[in-house]
Q: What sequence folds into this?
């Protein structure tokens, strides 16, 4: 993030009902209404929550711009002190405070689920403001974003497979999926159905039961990361790609839905120097947000939403091509594309 303040506005208020700090950062509305999830998380110092809101809202601007969405970036963070017990009653008050903060921005920003919040919480927020997405299907929303995120990651994988082996079919491709949660398991099922050869891993040993249905081989997460495969698919938490792990990697490419995969930004250059394609996580994982925004904020059909999610394949193919052409990393090509789209916005 730049050292200069480059957000359009940041609202920080003490929630009237919850008495907790509610932070809404609107980074950009150049391309359209700013969007970004509501993070309900514990912080030792509320200013760490502010730093998260600033960083994550800027990330949403880039994510929407590269995905070709007519939206900008924003984020809500409710910074819960470590000593506070977040019971059902307090949670309800928090959601009402968030709804009022979002409503006060008069449509500049819409919120959705993030770490610590769910589609049900969005329904509660939706009782006080229309500027919310990913409500449950029975409440008129698009519901759980994991299936669309998995589908979008599959599209990104196709582009990389094409680049590596001249075919977009994943049949016979060797992949290591690290993390069998909501997205990882769905993605592994799609890959297994297409005949990919899968290694799967998770820190939760109970997930091992899934290997049978997937026809996959179970390995420890560390082994999964450094396995000799075509494509590594990080689908757990962030920060797994460290400077130390880069020399150990034996994959040709890394494409996965996990957020913030790089421990530090310079790892993108190290991967590039090792000849490993790394598709930025915010590009590969955009399916969920593309689906929700297309259906809920832009009132498109499920079919249109699916087509836009599948178009991630073209986005990634174009980025790999641009990276080659300009002798830059795919990460640099993605941020250049985002900047171009923002610069040309009217
Ligand atoms: N759910 C979405 O629509 C969505 C959208 C964009 C990005 N993402 C990102 O994708 C990733 C997965 O999301 P999810 O919704 O499936 O989460 P999840 O919590 O359902 O699943 C995460 C899985 O990773 C496992 N895990 C945690 N640490 C691990 C480790 N060190 N090694 C191996 N496994 C580990 C957990 O046991 C769990 O099974 C997250 O980084 C999330 O931020 C998700």
A:
């Amino acid at each position: 993030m730049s050292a200069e303040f480059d957000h359009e506005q940041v609202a920080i208020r003490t929630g009237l009902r919850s008495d907790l700090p509610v932070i809404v950062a609107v980074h950009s509305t150049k391309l359209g209404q700013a969007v970004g999830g509501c993070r309900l998380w514990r912080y030792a110092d509320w200013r760490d929550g502010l730093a998260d809101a600033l960083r994550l809202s800027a990330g949403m601007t880039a994510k929407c711009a590269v995905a070709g969405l007519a939206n900008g970036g924003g984020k809500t963070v409710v910074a819960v002190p470590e000593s506070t017990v977040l019971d059902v009653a307090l949670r309800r008050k928090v959601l009402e405070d968030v709804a009022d903060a979002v409503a006060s921005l008069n449509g500049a920003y819409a919120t959705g689920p993030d770490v610590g919040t769910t589609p049900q919480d969005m329904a509660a927020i939706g009782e006080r403001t229309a500027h919310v997405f990913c409500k449950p299907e029975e409440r008129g929303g698009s519901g759980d974003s994991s299936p669309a995120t998995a589908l979008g990651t599959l599209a990104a994988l196709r582009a990389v497979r094409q680049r590596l082996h001249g075919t977009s079919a994943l049949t016979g491709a060797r992949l290591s999926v690290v993390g069998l949660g909501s997205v990882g398991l769905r993605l592994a099922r799609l890959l297994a159905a297409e005949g990919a050869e899968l290694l799967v891993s998770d820190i939760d040993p109970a997930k091992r039961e899934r290997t049978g249905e997937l026809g996959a081989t179970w390995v420890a997460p560390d082994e999964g990361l450094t396995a000799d495969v075509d494509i590594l698919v990080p689908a757990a938490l962030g920060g797994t790609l460290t400077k130390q792990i880069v020399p150990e990697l034996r994959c040709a490419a890394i494409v996965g839905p996990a957020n913030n995969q790089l421990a530090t930004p310079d790892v993108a250059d190290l991967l590039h120097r090792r000849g490993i394609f790394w598709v930025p996580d915010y590009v590969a994982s955009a399916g969920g947000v593309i689906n929700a925004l297309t259906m809920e904020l832009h009132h498109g059909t499920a079919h249109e939403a699916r087509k836009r999610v599948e178009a991630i394949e073209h986005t990634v193919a174009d980025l790999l091509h641009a990276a080659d052409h300009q002798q830059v990393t795919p990460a640099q090509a993605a941020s250049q594309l985002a900047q171009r789209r923002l610069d040309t916005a009217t």
The chain has a mean pLDDT of 96. Residues 146-285+315-338 form a domain with the Rossmann fold fold (CATH 3.40.50.720). The radius of gyration is 20 Å.
